[in-house]
From TrEMBL:
<feature type="transmembrane region" description="Helical">
    <location>
        <begin position="185"/>
        <end position="205"/>
    </location>
</feature>
<keyword id="KW-0325">Glycoprotein</keyword>
<dbReference type="GO" id="GO:0031295">
    <property type="term" value="P:T cell costimulation"/>
</dbReference>
<dbReference type="GO" id="GO:0007166">
    <property type="term" value="P:cell surface receptor signaling pathway"/>
</dbReference>
<keyword id="KW-0472">Membrane</keyword>
<keyword id="KW-0732">Signal</keyword>
<keyword id="KW-1015">Disulfide bond</keyword>
<dbReference type="InterPro" id="IPR013783">
    <property type="entry name" value="Ig-like_fold"/>
</dbReference>
<keyword id="KW-1133">Transmembrane helix</keyword>
<keyword id="KW-1003">Cell membrane</keyword>
<dbReference type="GO" id="GO:0042102">
    <property type="term" value="P:positive regulation of T cell proliferation"/>
</dbReference>
<keyword id="KW-0393">Immunoglobulin domain</keyword>
<dbReference type="InterPro" id="IPR013106">
    <property type="entry name" value="Ig_V-set"/>
</dbReference>
<dbReference type="InterPro" id="IPR036179">
    <property type="entry name" value="Ig-like_dom_sf"/>
</dbReference>
<dbReference type="GO" id="GO:0009897">
    <property type="term" value="C:external side of plasma membrane"/>
</dbReference>
<protein>
    <recommendedName>
        <fullName>Immunoglobulin V-set domain-containing protein</fullName>
    </recommendedName>
</protein>
<keyword id="KW-0675">Receptor</keyword>
Amino acid sequence: MEDKREIEGQHDLDPRRSDLLCLWEKMICRILLLISLTSCVSGTFVVKVSQTSYQAEENHNITLEWLFTTKPDSSSTSLNIYCQLFTDHNDPVLYHVHKGDEVPESQDDRFAGRVQSDKDALREGQIRLHVSRLRTNDSGLYTCDVKTDDGVSSDRCLLNVTAAVDQPEPEKPTERPQPESRDRIGLYVGLIAAGLAVCAGLFVFRLCSNPDVREHAEEHELENMDAEK
């Protein structure tokens, strides 16, 4: 009888132990899941813009910047970057990196010679694109897609380029004549006066050397004297 009671008591305790074990298993699973999720979140690959919008004026320069997470042991050959401008008509590419190497052939003609990247900053997880000689049609939404062994992510920013304001031309100060100009003016006046003197001398010389002219002049002078009397 006593053995039978012990066996029945063991049967009564087994369900309780089973429930307790199940509870512990669930708690352990939840703890492991929480640890797994925490490690995943801390290792998530993220791309973020330094600022969401930019404002600039035509013909000025600007630097667009994206930041992405990096690891010390990550290989540069796993880095792929694709940055482009979204417009209503097309999506021109302004920067492209494939397996760690820049691909200038992918760059759209409208950005040729106007976009420079900071390679030193790129190694530190920064995409810095210097855009020079801005145009009004450079306005729009810029996005950079980044892919590495750690994951894939992207972010975007807005650029607004306003037309340049026409600046009034400054008035040029009145230039005073230089000493050389004054000397030249005096020279020209002297030459003209000398020319007139020569012409007058020639006229007098001809008048005196020609008898007919001289006689006619004397007669004309006598007539004037008689008229005065």
